Amino acid sequence: MTITKDMSIMTVVEKYPQAAVVFMQHGMGCVGCAAAHFENIEEGAMAHGIDVDSLITDLNNFVSNIDEQ
Question: How confident is the model at residue 65 (pLDDT cuts 50, 70, 90)?
Fold first, then answer.
């Protein structure tokens, strides 16, 4: 699965629970908050002043390592 900025935060976390660490490393500690259920990654990143492209790159690198195992 390739993660894109228009995907919901919860879709990613439900498929890859370990990816919550990547969100937190980027300053999105509210992965479990109510907004995470309806915001997409880009909206969440913008709300926290986070570089969405960097976040997406790190998320995809992280999950590709999981998928290879």
Answer: confident
For the chain, domain boundaries: 9-68
* CA distances from residue 41 to 68, 69 in whole angstroms, order as listed: 23, 25
Examine the pLDDT at 69 and tell me if it is beyond 70: no
pTM: 0.88
Residues 6+ apart with CB under 8 A from 61: none
Annotation: CATH topology of 9-68: SP0561-like (1.10.3910)
CA atoms within 13 A on the CB side of 8: 12
Indicate if the alpha-carbon torsion angle 30, 5, 46, 54 is positive or negative.
positive
